[in-house]
Amino acid sequence: MMRHARACFLALVLTACGGKGASSRSGGSDKQVLRLIDSVRVRETEALFVGRLGDVAVGRDGHLFLVDLPESRVVEVARGGEIVRTFGKKGRGPGELDAPDALLVDGDSILIVSDRGQRILSRFSLRTGAFTHTVPFITTSSKMRMAAGELLATQFDEKSSTSLLAFSRTGEPAGAEGVTPALGLKYPQLQNFRTAAFTVKDSDVFAAVELSQSLFRWKRGARTGQEIVLPVVRRHGVSSAIFERLVGNPSPENAKAALDHSVPSALEFIAPDVLGLVTFDPVLASQSFTGIHYLTLVDLAKNQVCADILVPAIRDPLPRARLSADTLIVVQQAADAGGQPATSVLRFHISPAACAWAPLGAKGPSLQQNPINHFIHNSYGS
Fold first, then answer.
1. Is the pTM of this model over 0.90?
2. What CATH number is given to the structural domain containing 233?
3. Residue 155 — φ and ψ, nearest 5°?
4. Which end of the chain is more exposed for a tag (fewer CB within 10 A), N or C?
């Protein structure tokens, strides 16, 4: 039942855990920007528990849906920590899951589970808890969401230079869109470094991609967009040099060095014009991953940033961090005082007013700049 980070290097893009030391330089006071609301332990039993934690989705009324990787199921947890029920079980039959990956809560009635083992989407009723049906799913997406009646999923395609696929509710492909970071276009072989987080507001899509230090923005259906290059304060950031070395010489040393970059975990609007981006910095030690999470806020209306707020969470095994309106939710697993495995949920209120905001592109004592670090407009794709 115990929860260890994946020890496979190529699995980094889906799971990594824990940390580097944090500098005292910051765009604001972490304690002011992130205020702990509560910390709740999940009430696990011998039959109802969360094994090694996978994806996390946020539902109505504060309920969380957690992928239990060893048991190939989804565990629903109420706001107070009670396990309400489970969805699916290990197998390849109707309602069974082989390798559950991404989760999506569609309104208050449907739970959608991406099963990369069977290349299908399994759908469950949130009203009855019953399995309803499956549809084919041609991508092994790490992120999904609904927008204007379509299901959107991350999927990079070098030929079209796109990064997102759209599907109808019944699973038929409805088109490709989005942009691919310059590093991904230059080195298509970096397939295992394509973790992305994205969100949709009105007709605009916003995305953060593992191979870039930027936010990308495009109109639904478009293959060109805008780029907002973000500053690095405490995170590792993204350096093309480490990937250049890896592509030139895929040695174990260069593979390990390539872990030295920030990976997007969650991207949501926490206010009408303020985007919240959660990233983690992975570190490989003794064949297991540790890591540390940061929150960055971007005010699109005022063109300013509150960069790299340290998220107070354990580093090993990897917590999962999600955003829901102005709340940061962290699900983490660690042994309790008695040595027993325990899953807990931490909720933090995000206060943008407490940030020491800086203009995007500004150079000052609180911001460590990348070689290129300003608001730019670029076109990508065809």
1. no
2. 2.120.10.30
3. -165, 115
4. C
